[in-house]
Amino acid sequence: MDRNSQTFIRCQILVNSPVHLGCDEVYEPTGFVMDDEQDQLRVFDPTDFIARLSQQDQASFSAVCRKGSVASILEIYKFLQNRPVDGLRVEVCNDFKNHYQQIIKLPLGDESKIQQELNRFLIERTAFTPYDNRPFIPGSAIKGAFRTAYLNWLNPEVKAKSYEGKDAHKKLESYLLQLGEKPFETDPFRLVKVSDFRPVGFFKIKIVYAVNRKKKLSKYEARGPYQILEVLEPGVSFIGTITIDSPNKKVPIRTPITVENLWKSLAQFYGQEKHREDEELKAVGVKPIEIKVAEDQHLIRLGRHSGAECLTVDGHRKIKIMQSRGEKPKNENHATTLWLASESRNPESNQYLRPFGWCILEELEEEQWRRLEKEEREYKHQQAIELAEKLDLERETRARIVAEEKAREEQETRLAEERKRQEEEQARRQAELEAMTPGQKDAATLKYLSDSPQDEQLSMEIYKRLENYEGMEKINIAIALKEYWSRIGKWSGKQSSKQKAKILDIRDILDEA
Fold it and tell me: For a tag site, which of 17, 142, 185, 450 has the least CB within 10 Å?
């Protein structure tokens, strides 16, 4: 609709094949764990993770991180393996879990091998918002796709001549858009404003491999090594707006963009490129993506590995093709390979490979827009509830852990105090014993004996030494023996004849009837 000489369009982008929108970010080794049971990457905040570790685990983890060696990265992976963490969950393709296991099992002594494998294990993230980790489609990526389509739509109309040199593309753009001497002021895309497109409700992202395949079947594989990419999966929906300002009469724009022409350029260019690629895919055994474009919908291609043809102007393509080692690259008007999304690093066939980047851009009525915004609000509300519940549970868990740690510390304190008291008591007794005469030591020793065989044997030895003592020493040892035997049940009641004889001896010493 028009707003003060503007054309304002509410839109939805529906993802139809894997889309990766580079953001120069990777998943760092200290920021994720592999959940083998769920086949998911669990992404977390390292600071929060460390805070939840026990003091012993914190010390161990810090010691590994401080090493700073290539091999220590594997130690980090091993430390984190299958640890329970909260955070973003990212599905992984079939082969990724095996790849991860192979990485962490590398021998720590071969740093050259580790470095080589880790260089190939970089997991590139798709564009995301740091505060909630949700993916988005940058407006600049959409606008870039518009520009390529529009240039291709203009090309047959104005019959542009061929340009050479490093500025060839800029010269071609200037010619097609009739920019003149003021390329910025007269560029029609200066008046096109595209917002970032944000997801609606639940979103699905996945870790896949990008593999390179020749467009013509050959016994030799394409030279490009696999890449590991996080992608938006088919079925994900994003909403945003497009605004086209009316040209300022003071600055003439010779090729003004209208909504009608923009949609025509998308249909013509991406329709042709989709048909071309479908034929190339069939030739190498890949099933093309089926896309039905309804009224008020427009085909568009976004993100990395969209194909060189979808980024250039037909008839003016100079795509660099690498040759055998030692030979100079050459330029062609078409790419000779395709980058395709794969579940495996080395797929045995091309049957299940998928092309990247195909999407549908759909115009929305205000009612449709409000419905999607409501869906997004409800999703965020539910996420907020779940987050609050999780925080409550975390608080309860932390409070329980703190209480358990406090109780354990108090128990350890009590045990330490008891050990100290026993040690002090033992030291006191030892000091007293060392200051005593032999008779006093025997009497004192009997006070602390138990009914163990060893202690009974010791009591017998003291009894035998009675004849060596006289006077009060003898009486005190006799009293101690009586108390000891009473304590262990060997003074009264039924006793052996030998024990009765010993009791009589003690009674005589104590002058007891």
Answer: 450
Please give the Cα distance from 188 to 244 (Å, whole number): 9
E strand segments, 366-440: none
Q: Which residues contact 499 (CB under 8 A, 6 or more apart)?
A: 485, 490
Assigned token pair, 500: 């009765």
Q: How far apart are CA 45 and CA 47, in angstroms?
A: 6
Q: Answer for the pair 211, 348: CB distance below 8 angstroms, yes or no.
A: no
Token pair 């810090």 is found at 62
Instruction: Go through 133-163 and write b for each residue having 16 or more CB atoms within 10 A of its CB, e for each that does not.
Output: eebbbbbebbeebbbbbbbbbbbeeeebeeb
Question: pLDDT digits over 449-481, tens only?
Answer: 888 889 899 989 999 998 888 889 889 988 989
Among 90, 92, 80, residue whose Cα is nearest residue 49: 80
Dist. CA 337–CA 421, nearest whole Å = 81
Task: Tell me whether residue 165 is exposed, middle or buried, using C-beta atoms within 10 angstroms of its C-beta: 0 to 12, 13 to 18, 19 or more.
Answer: exposed
Contacts of 91 (CB under 8 A, 6+ apart): 39, 40, 41, 204, 205, 206, 207, 233
Low-confidence ranges of the chain (pLDDT < 70): 1-4, 157-166, 218-223, 251, 315-335, 513
**Read out DSSP for 473-500?**
HHHHHHHHHHHHHHHTT-SSSS--HHHH
CB 134 within 8 A of CB 128: yes
- State the CB neighbour count (10 A cutoff) for residue 283: 11
* Beta strands in 233-304, from DSSP E residues, in sequence order: 237-245, 297-301
Q: How far is Cα 13 from Cα 33, in angstroms, rounded to an integer? A: 31
Distance CA 249, CA 341 (A): 47
Q: Is 340 helix (H, G, I), strand (E, B) or coil?
A: strand
